[in-house]
Specification:
- By secondary structure, the protein is mainly β.
- Helices cover 4% and strands 54% of the residues.
- The strands form five sheets. The protein has a 24-stranded antiparallel beta barrel.
């Protein structure tokens, strides 16, 4: 099967026309070497700018794609360089400078403010530029782009200044060579583009025209030539840190402190080593925990900076779920289920400590991306005490473990890529090891209109108890994306043994799907709309190993934005009766299933103009089920008010209710027991920020989740997937609360250096009091013990080149 798939892939590559995007008539200018660097203050009066060639004649990207910008809003940009950095200045005309929006934001976050953005692509490959942003407030943002996807978790240290003038506003930027990657060649030409956002006009302008009807936006760079005799600097950046944390719970205090360092080192002009030594994640945000009654784990977002920054290569193929590393112990042995009659667990750690991690990544001039990732976690044990003898023993719940990823990603023709990925998890002792290998591809024709997208993957799980088993999966689709229309048709399957979950995440295997989708969009604004689009999808589902038909899904959605920036949309979804082999918790090959009822769902949303002081977002849904009492509905309400350019608050209420829901509860050795239950959940969140300046801010994040379940009756699952009454089983209702409040103060006292003060108040409770009213439930929650966490973290940025010059 694997050999046939690879042969099919290469036949497909030969069939498709693979040629570079036509770059005729691209805008090109020459840059100048300067003797004295400009002062980065936004004034543009330095000698460095006097003889620089102009980049001008900006065009509109959106909404009127391709239209020349009028002179009163034109932009002129200059680019110069020296031995240390590239310098960029921009003068942006605006007939009403006092009306330029200037809402403050924290780094890498956009607000209601104009911005100037530059993309720099030293390899000029049309796929992997670096992106640097300056807002009209002076706030910075930066990202690393891969195949059109911006990663704002990536950060560099660079200088910028913004200044409002009587003609509009100016930007000056200094991008040091250590912030980007380029080849060591005597004469170079780099791909560049410049973007300007005008909030009050709802427009975005670019130096080179980006045709929104075909291809990716990164394929339309202009060219800046004549970079001469520049050499990559030694890229060695050190981020030493020190932190102290205090936890107060039930009257007892715990104090901990840590010192460590993050290192970024340029192994060559194109490859970088990132390492974290003695990592400290004490200030990461809280997880949005919910009451999970389903057969699959809840997926959480990654918040640890080391795992969010510069990981685009490692995320290819969707085999890397970084929360596996240093998270909850793996239940290799059921500690509680194997206790002796006189034993009790006195300590069960709720996390595994990560000892260190490194990643090496980069891309050659020829477009070959290479990535290597490695992390190590320590051995973790539960403590068990004999209540009669007092004897203490340890039970390993997570062994010493090594996590490894290797990626080779060959890009070509500015629109295509083929990747080989391998992940490996090796555990010490009688614990299982895991290996997953994948071949992933995205191939487009010369004109970027037609594409083939897919992958083939194989997993191998081995341990000392069971024989190794191997699983595999395949997916491929053919699509079209040009002009108003896009469509896709494809097929995928995962066999019953495919399991990437030691380092990845897959909710269900043993499935196969025939799928297709189609969409239509506007390319230019109309009399009443900035844009609108329609999309349709459908899926025909089967079990893989038996070829049993399991169900059909389809949906239609519509989204639009009016000229007044009022956004709204709706979607309608249908699901046929479905044989669900996962809800009974018996394994997908057991032949046991639950027959889910036919489902019809409608959802609508509205969003008001975000530029106004008051912004309001609303949505609601209703779901009905044929020949079944089950019914669901819910809504969300989310106003945001901007009191000043420095202070804003956002509140969100989510409410969900399902009456007569049916799902797995238990089993008694003879029967699989389901419950008929009424479920509801409330989620209240508040987020706010106050910016003292672009380098100093106070932020608030609050979330209270309340989920409750009331059982109306219990049933046995029969052989036809239906439910028969069970009059003897008694189960408990569920009342689940999670409360978190985070208060953060961040002060960037020097480029790349921060002082962060953090406070968290958290409460958790789960009991059977599901009939409480909302406020009675709060009283019940506050009867529980609260955990208070205080933390201070100091991070200092050290550039080896400056350190060397001092000594």
């Amino acid at each position: 099967m694997l050999k046939k798939t690879i042969l099919l892939l290469f036949a497909m590559i030969i069939t498709l026309q693979l040629a570079a995007q036509n770059k005729e008539n691209r805008k090109t200018i020459k840059t100048n070497r300067i003797k004295k660097a400009p002062k980065i203050d936004g004034l543009l009066n330095d000698d460095a700018w006097k003889n620089a060639e102009l980049c001008t004649d900006f065009v509109i990207l959106r909404p009127d794609n391709g239209k020349l910008v009028s002179s009163e809003y034109q932009t002129t940009v200059k680019v110069v360089y020296d031995d240390n950095a590239v310098y960029i200045s921009a003068q942006m005309n605006d007939p009403d400078p006092e009306g330029i929006p200037q809402e403050f934001a924290t780094r890498d976050n956009f607000s209601i403010a104009d911005f100037f953005l530059v993309t720099i692509n030293p390899n000029d490959d049309g796929q992997n530029p670096f992106e640097f942003v300056v807002q009209s407030t002076g706030n910075q943002g930066d990202s690393k782009v891969s195949n059109g996807r911006e990663d704002f978790n990536w950060s560099a240290v660079w200088k910028s200044a913004a200044k409002i003038t009587d003609k509009g506003w100016n930007v000056e930027m200094e991008i040091p060579y250590r912030a980007i990657r380029f080849a060591n060649q005597p004469i170079q030409s780099w791909g560049f583009n410049f973007h300007r956002r005008l909030e009050k006009l709802n427009q975005q302008h670019t130096w080179t025209h980006i045709d929104n009807s075909v291809g990716r936006w990164t394929q339309y760079d202009g060219l800046i030539t004549n970079f001469r005799d520049i050499k990559p600097s030694t890229r060695l950046n050190l981020y030493p840190y020190a932190s102290a944390t205090t936890n107060v719970f039930e009257g007892e205090s715990e104090f901990d402190w840590s010192v460590g360092m993050d290192i970024k080192y340029g192994l060559s002009e194109n490859f970088t080593l990132d390492a974290t030594l003695i990592p400290d994640f004490s200030q990461v945000g809280f997880d949005d925990v919910v009451l999970n009654l389903g057969p699959f784990e809840q997926r959480f977002t990654e918040q640890r900076q080391f795992f969010t920054e510069g990981t685009e290569l490692f995320n290819i193929g969707r085999l890397f779920y970084s929360r596996r590393i240093g998270s909850y112990p793996i239940d290799q042995f059921d500690v509680y289920g194997n206790l002796g009659a006189d034993e009790e667990v006195t300590d069960y750690p709720n996390k595994v400590t990560m000892l260190n991690a490194v990643k090496i990544s980069g891309r050659t001039k020829g477009g070959l991306g290479i990535g290597f990732f490695n992390a190590i976690t320590e051995k973790t044990s539960a403590t068990i005490k004999n209540t009669n003898t007092g004897e203490i023993r340890k039970e390993v719940i997570a062994p010493f473990t090594n996590y490894n990823i290797m990626v080779l990603d060959q890009q070509f023709n500015q629109n295509s890529t083929i990747s080989l990925i391998n992940t490996n998890v090796a555990r010490v002792g009688e614990f299982r090891d895991a290996n997953v290998t994948a071949l992933d591809w995205h191939i487009e024709t010369k004109d970027s209109k037609y594409n083939a997208d897919g992958s083939v993957k194989m997993s191998t799980i081995s341990d000392d108890i069971n024989n190794p088993n191997t699983g595999y999966t395949f997916d491929n689709s053919f699509g079209y994306n040009s002009g108003h229309w896009n469509w896709e048709v494809g097929y995928n399957f995962e066999n019953k043994d495919f399991n990437p979950n030691d380092l990845g995440i897959l909710f269900s295997n043993n499935q196969q799907t025939l799928y297709s989708s189609a969409g239509w969009r506007t390319l230019q604004p109309t009399k009443n709309f900035n844009r609108y689009n329609f999309n349709f999808y459908q899926q025909l589902n089967y079990q893989h190993h038996s070829d049993i038909y399991t169900g059909y899904n389809a949906g239609l959605n519509y989204n639009a934005q009016t000229r007044n920036r009022f956004s709204y949309g709706a979607n309608f979804n249908y699901g046929s009766r479905e044989k669900d082999f996962f809800e009974p918790r018996q394994g997908s090959t057991s032949g046991i299933y639950f027959m889910q009822p036919e489902r019809k769902n409608a959802n609508i949303y509205i969003s008001t103009n975000s530029q106004k002081k008051l912004e309001l977002n609303l949505n609601g849904y209703i779901t009905s089920y044929s020949n079944n009492p089950k019914q669901g509905y819910g809504y969300s309400f989310a106003p945001r008010y901007r009191f000043t350019n420095q202070f804003s608050l956002r509140y969100r209420l989510n409410f969900n209710k399902t009456n007569d829901d049916q799902g797995y509860v238990d089993e008694d050795g003879t029967n699989i027991i389901f419950g008929m239950r009424d479920r509801k959940s409330y989620t209240n969140t508040v987020s706010g920020k106050y910016n003292f300046s672009t380098n100093s801010s106070l932020s608030l994040s609050f979330r209270h989740y309340w989920g409750s379940v009331n059982y109306n009756g219990f049933y046995n699952l029969n052989s036809e997937g239906n439910l028969d009454p069970n009059l003897t089983y008694n189960g408990d209702n569920v009342n689940f609360n999670s409360w978190n409040l985070d208060l953060n103060y961040i002060w960037q006292f020097a480029p790349g250096s921060q002082l962060i003060a953090f406070y968290r108040n958290s409460i958790f409770n789960e009991d059977t009091n599901s009939n409480l009213s909302f406020f009675k439930n709060l009283d019940n929650l506050f009867d529980q013990s609260q955990r208070h966490t205080f933390s201070v973290r100091f991070v200092y940025f050290i550039d080896y080149n400056k350190l060397k010059s001092i000594f």
